[in-house]
Amino acid sequence: MITNKLFPTLTVFGTLAALLTVASCATTAPSCPSPQTRNLDSAISFVKTSLNTGCQAHFDRYYDDLLRIAEGDPKPENKRTFSEFLVWSGDQGLLSTRQAEEYYNRYFNVKFMSMKGDYNNCSHTCPNKQKVLFNMERELSDKERGLLKVSEDRDGYYRADRLFQEVELVLEATCTACAAGR
Amino acid sequence: MNNKRPLALPVGAFDWARRQATLGLLLAASVLILAQSALANTPTIRLFPTSVVEDLRQTGNVARDMETGLQEVIGRLDQQQQLYEESKCDGAENDSGCQRLARQIGATYLEMLTIMEERLPDMEHTVNNTRMSLEKGLRNELGKKMTPWQLQETLIGKTTTSTTSPSAPTLRGRSGMRLSERFKQYYQLVATSGSQSDQSLAVLASDIYLDMDETSLLIERTRQEIARATLMEQLNQSFGIITPEMMEVVGGVKSILFGDEETRALVAGPPPGSIEQAYRSPLEQ
């Protein structure tokens, strides 16, 4: 009898406890929305706040959001804005120096981060030539975005494009020469 | 006595001497820095030793001799072929006049093959010499002594803020010009390579090397084919037949030796304007 009376009470308490648990989870995990503004400076402020309040894991998406917003208002000063944002990210411990360099140079530098390595070309680049060139081609499209669409640096982008073609030619010759020497 | 002189000088004179000494040191330091930067700007990769320059010159001469020898024969072949077509010999192979014309064409064709057979070994020799010298240079200088990043820096130049070098090689695409003209152009570019930057030299050496590699293979195949084609034509002579293969070979030789305007590749031009950057990020490498 007592058990029959207690059962509905226990059910109500159980449901309440479950609801409270779900609610508490919802408040601890941030939703990390993308910036809605079209202004790059405001968007960077928004992103900085988000990154400092538990959204570090969304760095890649935020960087992409910022690039998209900057594409709407391209200008040479955007390079500095992105550089300062990345330096800030490094200072905050969100990125290592190497990561910050990678994010910046991949989009805003003429030189290719995909063509790096500590060993000589015969032993390191030539065996992976196709992969290196494929990665460079992908990086070139990021440079198109960073240099051309965000920073309006047409000359920089054309130089990167030419550098890619030159690397293709020089690697073809060098790797043929390396292979002939074996 | 010299050691004592500063002590004997009045205060003003001492200051003057010190200023002079400081100025002297500064001047010496500036000279050192300037000398070092001049050294840094000097091309350091050795891709075109004297032997390569000489090989290129010789290859150009051999190619010119071959062209001269073949030009007259090919001109004659063209005339004979024109006459054959104008005489409506296509489809009238049994006509005795047409057979005579076909034999004449065949004989001229054989003459062309003989000239090529005589000249090709020289050509092969000089092309291979150039190819091997360049191969060694590319392998050592760009392949073994450089990391991919260094290669990239060499191609782009030390400073990305400079304008596109006017001396950058404009050779792109190797067809569309006379063989001897091509080598002459290579020779001229290489002979004046002292005035060119490392980035231009690396691209130029690669371009020439790949061309030599391709030419070398073509010569080898052509030499193999000549023997076969000669035998075939000697047989054809007895029947007075013009084979389509014969016309193809003549066409091929013409396009290799004298260029083919239709296949002329576009020459890559420099990007417009300067690539001067207003901003340099501390993250930039």
What attributes does this structure have?
heterodimer; A: 182 residues; mainly alpha; 8 helices; 0% strand; elongated; B: 285 residues; disordered N terminus
Structure overview:
The complex is a heterodimer of chains A (182) and B (285). With 182 residues, chain A is an all-alpha fold. Chain A has 8 helices and no strands. Chain A has helices spanning 2-28, 40-52, 59-71, 78-91, 97-108, 121-125, 129-150, 154-180. The longest helix of chain A has 27 residues, at 2-28. Chain A starts with a helix and ends with a helix. By secondary structure, chain B is mostly helical. Chain B is elongated, with a radius of gyration of 31 Å. Classes of the chains: A mainly alpha (182), B mainly alpha (285). At the A-B interface, helix 4, helix 5, helix 6 and helix 8 of A face helix 4, helix 5 and helix 7 of B.
Short description:
The complex is a heterodimer of chains A (182) and B (285). With 182 residues, chain A is an all-alpha fold. Chain A contains eight helices and no strands.
